[in-house]
Amino acid sequence: MYTSGLLFISTNEIIIIVVLALLLFGGKKIPELMRGLGRGVKEFKEGQKDGPDAENNPTNTANNDTVNNQR
Known about the structure:
Layout: H1 11-25, H2 29-50, H3 61-70
């Protein structure tokens, strides 16, 4: 079975995907979705950096309050 051709996306296919995304979500909703995705990735990276003991660490409470207020 020849699958290596499926791994590459041409310019025409990218344009079709972008147009479909604009039609489905609209021009206003896409930046909001990307902003939310960026915040999620940022929180995930911060969670990995802090480690598992970060929840019990009292020096990190100000940062947790800021994150909770943004939600």
